[in-house]
Amino acid sequence: MFPEINTISIFLLYLGIFFFAILFRYFLAAGIFYYYYYVWNSGVFHAKRLSRRGAKKGQLKKEINWSIKASLIFALAGTVLYWLWTKDLTAIYLVPNEFGYLYLPVSLIIILLIHETYYYWVHRWMHHPRIYKTVHKVHHDSLTPTPWTAFSFHPWESLLEAIILPVILLFIPVNIYVLALYLLIMTLSSVINHLDIEVYPKKFQKSWFGKLFIGATHHHYHHAEFNTNYGLYFTFWDKLMGTESPKMETPGRKN
Fold it and tell me: How far apart are CA 26 and CA 63, in angstroms?
């Protein structure tokens, strides 16, 4: 039913399929948000930009170029993961009720929390002076983030981003539909966090529940301050480790 990867030509075929699927998802998500907030309703949302400065000249082109390279590395990880799955070497399963329906949302929460923990500490490591210029500077060249910044990574950072999910899926049982949902969440959250316009209502942001999640405001301060707000989806590691920006107490200030 699912063909195995047993030749280089088939491997390259699947690499191409994964590459175009990831690239399509990126262009669709980033393109929709960019067009809606920066083009179609630019007059409405310009005053709501979190940054004083605009994007640098040529920034969008550079972001898209780096994102294409990142998508290729993500596709390579996806192809290797598929090969491992065909060899029955992963914990991915197809039948939704194999572990019970309650486990479906539980497994999603588990991989979100594992990914969050991995990303927080790797992200802090990437800000080390000896690592930053080689691995992470490309992403921070976007001083003012845009939706296209979501995948704008140096290949070394892309590789670090790509390896965690396959490793998780070697050990944690995850249904294929949960995995698809997770990939969608991962892309949308990255685009929203780099939008430089806060889409979540203020009432939600100020609630105890809303303060658990990262949005454009939280990540805006990371790009503005560099040494705060390292989280990916949730704020708990930043709060626990004292790395959350004090400006989060009065969100909405422009930098």
Answer: 12
Would you say 228 and 235 are in contact if contact means Cβ atoms under 8 Å apart? Answer: no
Query: pLDDT tens digits for 36-53?
Result: 999 999 888 988 999 988
What is the spatial distance between Cα 70 and Cα 80, in angstroms, rounded to a whole number?
Answer: 16
Q: Which of 216, 244, 72 is nearest to 150 (CA)?
A: 216
Alpha helices per DSSP H over the chain: 8-34, 42-45, 59-86, 103-126, 129-135, 137-140, 155-171, 176-193, 202-206, 216-225, 236-241
CA 94 to chain centre: 25
Q: For residues 173 and 103, what is the distance between their CA atoms, to the nearest angstrom?
A: 9
pTM here is: 0.93
- In angstroms, the CA 240 to CA 185 distance is 24
pLDDT value at residue 53: 81
